[in-house]
Specification:
The protein has 266 residues and is α/β, with parallel strands linked by helices. The chain is built from nine helices and seven strands; from the N terminus they run H-H-E-H-E-E-E-H-E-H-E-H-H-E-H-H. A seven-stranded mixed sheet has the order 3-2-1-4-5-7-6, with helices on both faces. The N and C termini lie far apart (100 Å).
Amino acid sequence: MHLDVTDLRQFYYRTQLGRAVQRNLRDSVRAMWPDVSGLALLGFGFAAPFLRPLMAEADRTLCLMPAQQGVCSWPAEGPNVSVLTDETQWPLPAGFADRIVIAHGLETCERPDALLEEIHRVLAPGGRAIFIAPNRTGLWARSDATPFGYGRPYSKGQLDSVLRDHDFQVERFDAALYGPPSARRFWLKTSRMWESAGARIGASRLAGAVLVEATRTAWALPRRGTPVRARSPFEVFGGLAPQPAGSGIGGRARGAILEAQARRVG
């Protein structure tokens, strides 16, 4: 089930809970990628809120939004870099992006295998992607008060398995949104405290979102071995060509053997 882009934009930019979620997930993405200078940056789904801190550093930034979700102009200031696209057929050449952030894209996709194949195609060899998805064991996946309550949630093990099946090498895991999905003032004011405490004690099973950084596996072609020269028959026989039967020394020896056999029979 795809969320409408209007609802996603309303949550992240018009509600206090959405802004807290945006801040916490931005911090997690930035911790994984402290520097994207000179790289081609791509977002898919509704990744715009998490691309903002990276946009100024990247060489170029593009934000793809699936047709089932809808598209909105982004950023609010400056030239638009958001594009409406089919979720499994991106209008980009192979190896276009050095970094890709996927948020609210994988869990709502009707054909996740095809989407992962497309991500693998567009990601440059050795490039990195961050997948942000609802945590299956967290509270946020059990409430439809936020976008993390829609679509298919994932556990770390499930994400690890599905990414490896599509030739991604998982580099590391992270988690975020340790507080409850509540817009009450107390939880919002203590949001940073919950994030810090959850990360410190390793309570990732209670987090609302799981983040996985993965690298596109680049297979190397087998290297050629040292060439070996096959010896010719002349080299095997010391420079003398083998004689056909019935000629030369070999022929006389064969004739003597046949004559001796004939006498023995007679």
